[in-house]
Design goal:
Oligomer: single chain
Number of helices: 5
Distance between the termini: 28 Å
Strand order of the largest sheet: 1-2-3-4
Number of domains: 2
Structural class: alpha+beta
Length: 209
């Protein structure tokens, strides 16, 4: 037979465990309802973008074989940055597509130009900053760094991220995305990367449930 003190401890543990499980089941319910009623395109920020970025038609581009330092080309993309054409070679280096000279990343003006290609004209820039590192909970996690984060005057607190090394529009973040991210974290119970469905805590709760 259990002693009185041990019995009390077990009852307390059971009570607190029930509370924790109840909160988690409530979060699963809330997040499930939210996901089912949410337009995923709006979460991606499509309502703030133009349908398709407008690209110029470039002439006079040199052959990739004529680039500075003669890189062995295994991957190539043509990028438009501030009205100029660049080759993104081997997912590593930008080259001016007309002169062949390598380019060590983009500056603030060029980052703003890249963002403008994708966004609607009525969005007004309020700030631009360079970030060189993020933590596992940052809204710009697991993406190319360093990057410029561009803030806009809008009630949804819009931020756009443009990577420095390749001059690419990486992503857009806003209030609805942040709510989605938080609820997705509670739904998967992956409190770091968000997308791991095999965490110990999720498995434990599934067994206890």
């Amino acid at each position: 037979m259990l002693k009185g003190s041990n019995s009390l401890k077990i009852r307390k543990i059971h009570r607190y465990l029930g509370i924790f499980m109840g909160i988690q089941f409530l979060m699963w319910t809330i997040s499930g309802i939210y996901f089912s009623w949410t337009d995923i395109d709006e979460i991606h920020g499509d309502q703030f973008k133009d349908k398709e970025p407008v690209y110029e038609s470039f002439t006079g581009l040199i052959s990739p074989d004529s680039l500075e330092n003669k890189p062995s080309v295994k991957f190539i993309e043509l990028r438009q940055i501030n009205g100029n054409a660049y080759y993104w070679i081997n997912k590593k280096t930008l080259y001016d597509a007309k002169t062949g000279k390598s380019k060590k990343g983009i500056d603030e003006k060029e980052a703003l130009s890249v963002a403008k290609q994708y966004l609607k004209d009525n969005l007004i820039v309020t700030d631009i900053q360079l970030i060189t590192k993020t933590n596992e909970h940052h809204e710009y996690r697991e993406r190319l760094l360093p990057a410029y984060v561009i803030s806009y005057e809008h009630e949804d607190e819009i931020k756009v991220y443009v990577s420095v090394s390749d001059g690419a529009f990486q992503t857009i973040r806003h209030r609805s995305w942040r709510w989605f991210d938080f609820l997705w974290m509670t739904h998967t119970m992956d409190y770091q990367g968000r997308d791991n469905f095999n965490t110990f805590i999720l498995r434990a709760f599934s067994l206890l449930g």
